[in-house]
Amino acid sequence: MKALGKAYKAAEASTGEFKRLPAGGYIAEITAVEDKADKEYLNITFDIAEGEFKGFYSDDWGKEHPYAHSFVRSYKDKALGMFKGFLKAVDASNSTQFEKQAEKGLPEQNLVGKYIGVLIGYEEYRTNRGEIGQRTRVTGTRSVQAIRDGNFKVPELKRLGEEPTTNSPVPGFDQLNEAELPF
User: Which of 39, 74, 92, 160 could form a disulfide with 124 if both were Cys (CB 3.0 to 4.6 A apart)?
Assistant: First the structure.
């Protein structure tokens, strides 16, 4: 093994555990916006802007893993209500007029540096090893004032769906007892 030198000496020992952002409402600053025009959505990256967790994603890990602190807002026709709600929250938090500008074309890079309230929750997922893990997800956006006022509900853990179970000998059909037969 090679000599690890000064970098090793300066490194803090780690157990592999990391501090997690608790589920709840946070005031966030939009740090990057990418328009995926072919799929009609904005990919929005953020960092926590106030409070105990200010700058939570500003470390090296956060910089290398922007997907861990980003969310998508679709502007497809069927999602315009959610997109409009997002812009209203940005406008209420920053005294901007993105909601009005969106009809004629939104300069999405103007969202960078703006503040918004985000609701952070967790969801279960299946890892590559088949284990169940948990990851952060933005469950909604609110105005900064709504977060300050506590006008939100803390998101509950979104669990993986239960595996379907059946005692039917034929897949896709449920076993019925005689009392349930319609004839």
Answer: 160
